[in-house]
Specification:
This protein folds into three domains: about 260 residues, P-loop containing nucleotide triphosphate hydrolases (Rossmann fold), CATH 3.40.50.300; about 120 residues; about 35 residues, no CATH class. By secondary structure, the chain is α/β, with parallel strands linked by helices. This is Conjugal transfer coupling protein TraG.
Length: about 475
């Protein structure tokens, strides 16, 4: 496998290769992006974050997320993969059982009960895993982890331009932090979001704990408890308490997520160290309200990575469905820990800007070593990419005549765009445009999940969109079972 795309000099002619490879290929941790137009050579992505943009029906899952998952699952079984499967578990229902049969460890986080069919692979994972791990490692560091958690629950407004109302965000965070520390001190196994939400819903019990810790707590917890006791007599106390309750209300008593993480069977660190393929599943209908749930899990995974858990490859299919501002903030730091990569898939750049903000959208693009477009449906995006591609020299000819009916042919050197916005908008549906940092633009054929053996013969039906794509193998991947043989 040549780096990074099987590239050779333009003057060296390559012998055309058939799609079907007689010998299984080991991706070696690289993602298969597609095939070259002329020789059908596989295109392998370099290491690093990436961004894929495609409108509805463009093949984001079938040509993007699933082939990438196959690429990661086919080899390097010690490297964990996390799929943010926020589209009703579309990836999990197709691939979980198949990957388990090929020898990969599979874990499904489905606290909303989207798929009872996959109960055999479901694990109980504590969304407050970061707090539990920090407390067990060194309680003195809880001040940092609890602040990360409370900021995930109560976010700062975009741009950070609302400093005058910081008071009304800081105090609810203080209340949540106090509840976290109270549970951690008494029994860290009880430290789950549902427990904190339940304590917040019982103000009298909360103040009783505050009174106890104000007298008996350690230095940090004692000071926090004394502040809460004093604030409870202030006119703004009901408002602060209500805001804290609202921040964690998806974990409130009587909700589906109230028991999320109770009797956790595994930790975020274990999932990474043991090389699991992890599916974080959620229902798309309420995904806009589950941002806190996803953010807490991402914080826990990041905490484990920062302390040497290993490598995690994240496939964030339809990542704008779950507003993960914390994931965007981690892009600049995660790459340095175990070679962790984040591969984001969305419908459009404007959708990313609407969800996260313009600056955050620019941060995503700047950190993406590879950017991919499965077609264009917006003229603004087509013009932007056309400008990025630049211009090339071209010959212009013109035909003229004079009074004596003599014809003159004029040839001149001019410049034209590599691809005009109109050409980009008319790009064939089986093609993709790839930008690689340090190399440039590549026009290539897509690869579908139905083109990769042996997975295309074993994948389960897509119960969301119906049926299974007919197998049409063009490349064969090695699998853990093959390696063992």
């Amino acid at each position: 496998m040549s780096f990074p795309f099987g590239w050779v000099s333009n003057w060296k002619r390559r012998k055309p290769l058939p799609f079907a490879k007689p010998k299984p290929v080991d991706p070696k941790g690289q993602r298969l992006l597609g095939f070259t137009l002329d020789t059908h050579e596989p295109l392998w992505a370099p290491k690093g974050h990436s961004l894929l943009l495609a409108a509805n029906g463009g093949g984001k899952t079938t040509c993007g997320a699933m082939p990438w998952l196959y690429s990661f699952a086919a080899s390097e079984r010690d490297k964990a993969v996390l799929c943010l499967d926020s589209k009703n578990g579309e990836m999990a229902i197709q691939a979980a059982e198949m990957l388990a049969r090929t020898g990969r460890k599979v874990a499904i986080i489905d606290d909303m009960g989207v798929w009872t069919d996959l109960e055999a692979y479901r694990v109980s994972l504590n969304p407050f895993g970061a707090a539990v791990a920090t407390f067990q490692r060194d309680p003195r560091d809880m001040v940092y982890t609890s602040e990360n958690i409370t900021h995930a629950a109560i976010k700062e407004p975009p741009g950070g331009e609302d400093a005058k109302n910081l008071y009304f965000r800081a105090w609810p965070r203080n209340v949540i932090e106090f509840c976290i520390l109270v549970y951690a001190k008494r029994d860290v196994r009880l430290l789950i979001p549902g427990g904190v939400s339940q304590l917040l819903s019982r103000p009298d019990t909360l103040l009783q704990f505050a009174a106890i810790e104000a007298e008996e707590g350690d230095a940090y917890l004692k000071g926090l408890a004394q502040s809460i006791v004093a604030m409870s007599r202030h006119e703004h106390w009901p408002q602060h308490l209500e805001e804290a309750q609202r921040a964690l209300r998806i974990f409130a008593p009587g909700t589906r997520l109230h028991h999320a993480g109770k009797d956790a069977t595994i930790s975020h660190e274990q999932l990474i160290r043991e090389g699991y393929v992890i599916f974080l599943v959620g229902p798309q209908s309420v995904m806009n309200r589950m941002g806190v749930f996803y953010a807490l899990h991402m914080l826990a995974f990041a905490e484990a990575l920062y302390y040497g858990a290993g490598t995690l490859r994240i496939i964030a299919d339809e990542f704008t469905n779950c507003p993960l501002s914390s994931l965007v903030e981690m892009l600049t730091t995660l790459r340095a820990f175990g070679g962790t990569e984040v591969h984001m898939i969305a419908q459009s750049r404007s959708e990313i800007e609407r969800r996260f903000g313009k600056r955050e959208s620019e941060t995503i693009a700047e950190n993406a070593v590879v950017q991919i477009w499965y077609g264009f449906s917006a003229a603004k995006e087509a013009r932007l990419v056309s400008e990025m591609m630049g211009e090339e020299h071209a010959l212009a000819t013109s035909l003229g005549s004079n009074e004596e009916l003599k014809l003159n042919t004029n040839i001149s050197l001019t410049r034209q765009k590599h691809m005009t916005p109109a050409e980009l908008l008319a790009m064939r549906p089986d093609l993709q445009l790839i930008y690689v940092k340090g190399i440039g633009f590549i026009l290539a054929r897509k690869v579908g999940m139905q083109n990769i053996a042996p997975f295309c013969h074993r994948v389960a039906p897509n119960k969301i969109e119906g049926g299974t794509l007919r197998a049409d193998p063009r490349i064969t991947f090695v699998t853990p079972m093959m390696e063992a043989a």
